[in-house]
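Checked the freezer inventory, then went back to the computational side. Two predictions to log before the end of the day. The first one is the construct we discussed on Monday; recording sequence and tokens without edits.
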Amino acid sequence: MSIYDYEIKTIRGEEQSLAPYKGKVMLIVNTATGCGFAPQFKGLQKLHDAYKDQGFAVLGFPCSQFANQEKESNDEIAQACELNFGVNFPLHAKINVNGSEAHPLFKHLTNEARGVLGSKSIKWNFTKFLVDREGNVVKRFGSTDEPEKIEGHIRKLLES
């Protein structure tokens, strides 16, 4: 199954696939507005703004599996992201990223790009997956990897 075949819900509840992102470089991130890493939203938005016209997109997937650090409703999440962090990159409905209830997209991502010591599970909020223009998951970045540190990897994929 191609990454573009996965069905996702927007933050507004609309069903869609990742097909509109075919041919683009994507940075897919599990987010949480109440997390200590939430200031990364600003860096993610900066990357999105800098490279969106070159075929790049940040995709945020709110998750509450780590210390319940995400708001209850998708409307509250969207509002907090916009008001507190100026986010206008695509946000999606709140999902699970680990366990039997993990969204199929994240099962795919964690299978394709493993974490420390080959682990599949995501350890915390703001784990990032870099996907090339062909839909290949090329690299996984941890929560402590600041968006600015990923910029070189993004530029490289955009230039190839």
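The second is the one RB wanted added to the comparison set:
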Amino acid sequence: MTDASITFEQDREAGFGDYFALLKPRVMSLVVFTAFVGLAVAPGGVHPFIGFFAILCIAIGGGASGALNMWYDADIDRVMKRTMKRPIPTGKVTEQEALSIGLTLSAFSVIMLGLATNWVAAGLLAFTIFFYVAVYTMWLKRLTPQNIVIGGAAGAFPSMIGWAAVTGGVSLESVLMFMLVFMWTPPHFWALALFMNADYDAAKVPMLTVTHGKRATRVHILVYTVLLAVAAFALLATPIAGWAYLITAIVMNGAFLAGAVRLYRRDEVQAEADNYKAERQFFKLSLVYTLAHFAALLVDRVLGAMGVGGPF
């Protein structure tokens, strides 16, 4: 074996970072935060250690979903520019390893969450993993341009799971937190698709930009942004939202609606001329949108515990 081949094999050897990347840590960060807020604002509270362990299990479950997604989507990840550097396409991790890790972590997270909290929360976590992998990844993603709309439910469940870990059930508050993330997902991903359309086209993923064109996508972004605002303000009808949430909802939804209208008014000649600047800005704003709303719920919870403020 030559020195060059030895070096090549060493470059292909997986490290901790490669296995961690299988868990989609960026996606996991939103999962962890929304789950934590769902747990924190739930009535009754829970012992800090149990709460920490519950969030850990939810994070592991989210990471397991990411590993299984990378296992099944390895073929299209090799084609798309934004995914071709993931562990499987680069040869750092094999597809079989990703499958084994995903299945093991899935079982571990569900069982341990059930034992630590309750089986309602565990059942919701199990359903979330199943929905993301089987319903979204294996079925919807390659079948319909509504893949993001329906599949967005998987990313919306964590706050509901956190709530159930404390209360042992589902309520209006947890459903509305679910709806906030569920309605946010389409405009978030469609904005990305507007300037990454070539990736989805090359991978033959039927994203809305590929099947119906960018004009239709801009219309859909505007419609779903309006629906998102309705879902966001609906939380004000519950005890978990106070003045911090009200202010955040007004500011963020105003900015998001303004951004959606701007995208709607743009044509492709203009967008291509400035390298989709407005679309990229809208996508970046979408990254802040959900975090800001859930952070506001957390602030209202803290203020309420201190005897300051309270429900709107």
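For RB: Residues 11-169 form a domain with the Tetracycline Repressor; domain 2 fold (CATH 1.10.357.140). Confidence is low (pLDDT under 50) at residues 1-11. Let me know if you want it refolded.
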